[in-house]
What does this fold into?
Amino acid sequence: MGDAIGQLLPFAAGIAISPMPIIALVLVLVSPRGRVAGPAFLVGWFAGLVLVGALLLVLAGPTDPSEGGEPADWVSGLKLVLGLLLVALAAKQWRGRPQVGEEPEPPGWMAALDTITPLRAAGLAVVLGSVNPKCLVFIVGGVAAVAQTEIPGSEQAIAWAVFVVIASIGVAVPIVISVALGARAREVLGRLQAWMVQNNAVIMAVMFLLLGVQLVGDAISGLSG
It folds into this structure.
């Protein structure tokens, strides 16, 4: 199980530092119903990661290692595809980064967060954390990392619970700030939101590139072993 956790950590970290869910949660927290909608967002986030991960783990099942004890060929093939996809996403994010002095335009749907309800906040969290293609790539990578270790279902569940906790650190931070700082939280959260909006493309480009190169290297090693 330790090997599975070690393999999935980079993917969980990729979701944890993804700026868009954090930006969305900050906007939810400063909305009129933020005290209720914020925790609802966190519940939806957890639920989405748990359910999607569990479904993919069931579909993947344990993988039989290839000869020599290496991961099954399909796992290496999946890593290669994911790695190349992440490198392509890194290039796209980097090209789309705001230039010096340019203010990035936030997505139009963020304007509706001022009046969001707790139920919609939970649904938004599921979409941003589990259905959003950028995060879904990390989830699939984490599932592949767990499945290839051939650990029993109970240990898979524990490993995935670790994934969910680490992947949730990013969205937990604004909640902690809101509770700890009270009235002063709005100013701090506003600065956090502005910084993440400005640096969203660069953060994701670097993370995509690092994980993509790692996955391509692992895939080449597995397929040639």
Notes: The chain has a mean pLDDT of 85. The chain has nine helices and no strands. Residues 15 and 41 are 15 Å apart (CA to CA). The longest helix spans residues 185-224.
